[in-house]
Design a protein that fits this description.
- With 286 residues, this protein is an alpha/beta fold.
- It folds into two domains: 4-164, Rossmann fold, CATH 3.40.50; 172-285, Orthogonal Bundle (N-(1-d-carboxylethyl)-l-norvaline Dehydrogenase, domain 2).
- It contains twelve helices and nine strands.
- It has a six-stranded parallel sheet with strand order 3-2-1-4-5-6, with helices on both faces.
- α7 (143-153) links the parallel β8 and β9 (157-164).
- α8 packs across α10 and α8 (168-196) packs across α11 (236-247).
Length: 286
């Protein structure tokens, strides 16, 4: 494959992922709704496009990393300047955002009408992993498209996992985020209970972290609850969005644990914690 890679969306994750593409020696064209965020990448060697469609024109790979369904719909399908309408049929579209499965299926159908292969390929990991190229891709889509895209995905990821047909990557990511939110919410309650019982919380967390019960990610989150600063790695406003998308997967079966966590996160947003990391859930109990 020859040509450029288009990268749409330069938020906290997109900035880092696009920079990894450049550092790997690729020709990169970027677009962002707020053009002020393109200057650092332009200085690093990227070209800047005025619209998603202009960025996608002639690209071999088009990657999107945006906030939600609405933003994804705009970059891919906006009349006149959406990326899909300007892509060559030989190109691959890669949606890395964490979105609803319903929209991803709709997007796959729209891509197919343009003769374009779509991969839904959200990532596990946050800003430090994006910077160091240690993200994990959960990919839904056809193997031939993944084979063509994978060398580029590995610019910012250490692992690329094919989890099934279109929509499967999104499903896996939503359920993964749901699991993590449940774990962190439970740990916030444990920390509050320990403080109420006048237990040495730091020693308790150290003990829990030494057991097989505690995952590495939960151990990091637990340690963060010892402090008062919670800079966003997984902001609570995005946790709420992802839990809402995950809830739309549910059938008539009751999901009381997930529903309780969704309510807890909603309370955190009402308390003004939306811009803080998920670990700020512990502040609900102060």
């Amino acid at each position: 494959m020859t040509g450029h890679v288009a990268f749409l969306g330069l938020g906290a994750m997109g900035q880092r992922m696009a920079r990894r593409l450049l550092e790997a020696g690729n020709s990169v064209v970027v677009w962002n709704r707020d053009s002020a965020k393109t200057s650092a990448l332009e200085t690093a060697g990227a070209q800047v496009a005025a619209t998603p469609g202009a960025a996608a024109n002639g690209a071999i790979l088009v990657v999107s990393m945006v906030r939600d369904d609405e933003a994804s719909r705009r970059v891919w399908c906006a009349p006149g300047d959406g990326a899909l309408a300007r892509m060559d049929e030989s190109a691959v579209a890669v949606e890395c955002s964490t979105l609803s499965r319903g929209w991803v299926r709709e997007l796959a159908d729209a891509a197919a009408k343009h003769g374009v292969s779509l991969l839904d390929a959200p990532v596990a990991g946050s800003r430090p992993q994006a910077e160091s190229g240690q993200l994990i891709h959960l990919v839904g889509g056809e193997p031939p498209a993944l084979k063509r895209a994978e060398p580029y995905l590995k610019s910012w990821s250490a692992t690329v996992l094919s989890v099934g047909p279109s929509g499967s990557g999104t499903l896996a990511k939503l359920l993964l985020n749901q699991l993590f939110a449940v774990q962190v919410a439970a740990m916030a309650e444990i920390v509050a209970s320990a403080r109420g019982a006048q237990v040495d919380v730091s020693r308790l967390i150290e003990a829990i972290g030494a057991t097989p019960v505690c995952s590495p990610a939960l151990k990091v989150a637990s340690m963060a609850m010892l402090g008062t600063n919670h800079p966003p790695q997984f902001p609570l406003e995005l946790v709420a969005k992802d839990l809402s998308y995950a809830a739309s997967l549910a059938d008539s079966t009751l999901h009381p644990i997930s529903e309780a966590v969704q309510l807890t996160v909603a309370n955190a947003l009402r308390a003004g914690l939306g811009g803080q990391n998920i670990t700020a859930l512990c502040q609900l109990y102060d």
